[in-house]
Design a protein that fits this description.
Layout: E1 4-10, H1 18-31, E2 36-42, H2 54-57, E3 61-62, E4 68-69, H3 72-80, E5 89-91, H4 92-105, H5 115-133, E6 138-143, H6 153-165, E7 168-175, E8 178-179, E9 184-185, H7 188-199, E10 206-211, H8 217-227, E11 234-238, H9 246-252, H10 255-263, H11 272-287, E12 291-299, H12 309-321, E13 324-332, H13 341-348, E14 353-356, H14 365-377, E15 382-385, H15 387-399, E16 407-408, E17 418-422, E18 437-445, H16 450-455, E19 459-466, E20 468-470, H17 475-480, E21 484-488, E22 495-499, E23 505-508, H18 523-535
Parallel strand pairs: 1-6, 1-7, 2-5, 2-6, 7-10, 10-11, 12-13, 12-14, 14-15, 15-23, 16-17
Antiparallel strand pairs: 3-4, 8-9, 17-20, 18-19, 18-21, 21-22, 22-23
Helix pairs in contact: 1-3, 1-9, 5-6, 12-18, 14-15
Bound molecules: glutamine.
Glutamine binds at residues 358-360, 386-387, 410, 465-468.
């Protein structure tokens, strides 16, 4: 049977959770036994996300196959429990470079190359190929940005044409603001936004309304009237305690039945077991009512939580797995710089454990090192991710091995003791895009280590994204001083994980958060939270 399509767009503003809507629809269709996968369009002219600042754009997400993609892929993989590939990500940059390459090759000889039909044809061809190769029953397409942006206008036009070729359902995600003291939900922005969507030739089949509180009947009625839709097709998507409740929330409004009917799949049976298991998971994530555990996340992009989206979700997964109620304390690492020990103790004193996530550049580094030292000296469980592992090594070299000027050459290229140094393979590389050590790589974990206990096996594949690495010239010295090298690449050449010997403190060169899913939480995160609960066994909910 030919693939059918669901296109998710936003006509009002971006950043309101189209990714969660898309992932939830995918989850729902899969619970009905359909092979559904999402594809994402981003209009920017970057080839991929790799060169974007997480502080502006949110986290750069890495797939097994080395591609650096939009953070929405994190939601897709977490909701659907699948591993995706670069084919599911389409950017303006990739499309334009491909169309110009075709033109230079002479593929369009005699023609002037145009957005319509050449670029739109290329988009449709790619969509159809990915659908076919993956034998999809339904492809969900999330169009990034907002309808009306110049950046994604050709994607919107391609979607209009898609509906001429295939069964296509359009879902428009809007935001319904509420005016402060009056508390009235205002639909005017949605009405205006709908006009611009319809001007593009697209009549939505469903409108998903993001709002702070449940969508009231008057707002629903008004939006229905302006969109030529019945009220059942105006879907409430107000802020909930957990993103994982979204699929059930949509199903409770009958969206599953309506969308299956629209696609011509009526009569399919819901897999009750899959539904119940997701439902109970989502309820636990929303309740967050176990034993309280306070996690200090010390990073440099904490002002925008989206920069650490996968870290946050991996913590949620580990919290549910341990029946813990997590309180995340996001600490701007610069705040911890130039503080004496007492002030650091005051700032971190209420934390049960400390996490230092990944990052680039010098700003805030000393604050992270101070936090790591505090955790090591005060018996607090610690988890270091990529940069966090590198700084755990620097801290150990400085304060235990007494190599006072130990550093990473990323921050201090002239230091005598570069305990973290540029990778050999990286020295000659000048181009910035897609050139780090990226994607899933194997690590071999040594017996008797905390990392081995967490994973329960010797060989693991985690995703990477870095240029610097543990400098082997210091391996002996650090090991002699008590730092445990718990994992290396299978050939023994690159250090992949280090740990403290006396209490849980593990640093990994990888980003295990990128593979953490509700149905498969990241082992190091689970063990980290478990250790934090053991370290403070007396705390009560
Ligand atoms: N900046 C460090 C490196 O490139 C760490 C990267 C990261 O944390 N993802 O090696």
């Amino acid at each position: 049977m030919p693939t059918k399509y669901i296109v998710v767009m936003g006509s009002l503003l971006s950043g309101i959770g189209k990714g969660i809507v898309t992932a939830s629809l995918g989850k729902i269709l899969r619970m009905y036994g359909l092979r559904a996968m999402p594809m994402k369009f981003d209009g920017y002219l970057n080839y991929d996300c790799g060169t974007m600042n997480p502080f502006r754009h949110g986290e750069v997400y890495v797939l097994d196959d080395k591609s650096e993609v939009d953070m929405d892929f994190g939601n897709y993989e977490r909701f659907l429990n699948v591993s995706m590939t670069k084919d599911f990500s389409m950017t303006g940059g990739k499309l334009f470079s491909e169309i110009i390459e075709k033109e230079r090759r002479g593929d369009f000889l005699g023609r002037d190359v145009q957005i319509i039909p050449h670029l739109t044809d290329l988009i449709l061809e790619k969509i159809e190929n990915v659908s076919k190769e993956n034998r999809l029953d339904v492809m969900l397409i999330e169009v990034g940005g907002t309808v009306g942006d110049i950046e994604n206008s050709y994607f919107v036009e391609a979607m209009r044409q898609l509906a001429l070729r295939h069964t296509t359902v359009f879902v428009d995600v809007v935001y319904v603001p509420e005016l402060g003291t009056v508390g009235e939900q205002k639909t005017k922005p949605t009405q205006i936004a709908l006009r611009s969507l319809m001007q593009s030739g697209v009549q939505p089949h469903f409108i998903v309304c993001r709002s702070e509180r449940p969508l009231g009947d008057p707002a629903k009625d008004k939006i229905a009237l302006f969109s030529n839709l019945t009220k059942e097709r105006i879907i409430d998507d107000h802020d909930e305690k957990s993103i994982y409740v979204a699929p059930q929330h949509f199903m409770a409004q009958g969206l599953d039945k309506e969308i299956l009917r629209e696609l011509g799949f009526e009569g399919l049976k819901l897999d009750k077991k899959a539904f119940n298991s997701w439902d109970s998971y989502a309820q636990s994530a929303a309740d967050n009512s176990g034993r309280p555990v306070s996690v200090a996340v010390v990073g440099k992009y904490v002002g925008l939580h989206d920069s650490y989206a996968s870290v946050k979700e991996a913590l949620v997964h580990a919290g549910v797995a341990n029946r813990a109620s997590l309180r995340l304390d996001w600490i701007e690492s610069e705040e911890l710089e130039n503080l004496d020990n007492d002030s650091i103790a005051t700032r971190l004193g209420a934390s049960d454990c400390v996490l230092v996530p990944g990052g680039f550049g010098k700003r805030g580094i000393e604050g992270m090192i101070n936090a790591i030292r505090y955790a090591r000296e005060h018996g607090l469980p610690f988890l270091g991710l990529c940069l966090g592992m590198q700084l755990m090594t620097v801290e150990y070299a400085r304060n235990v091995c007494m190599l006072k000027d130990a550093d990473s050459s990323e921050f201090n290229p002239r230091t005598k003791h570069k305990v973290i140094d540029i990778m050999e393979d990286q020295r000659a590389i000048r181009l910035k895009g897609g050139t780090m050590r990226l994607g899933a790589w194997p690590s071999k974990i040594a017996k008797g280590t905390r990392a081995r206990k967490a994973y329960g096996k010797a060989l693991v594949y985690e995703r990477h994204r870095h240029r610097y690495e543990f400098n082997n010239a210091y391996r002996r010295r650090l090991e002699d001083a008590g730092l445990v090298i718990s994992a290396t690449t299978p050939d023994g050449r690159l250090v992949e994980m280090v740990e403290w010997s006396d209490h849980f403190g593990v640093g990994t060169q990888a980003h295990p958060e990128l593979k953490s899913r509700p149905e498969a939480p990241a082992p190091l995160f689970v063990e980290f939270i478990r250790s934090a609960m053991q370290a403070h066994p007396t705390r009560k909910p």
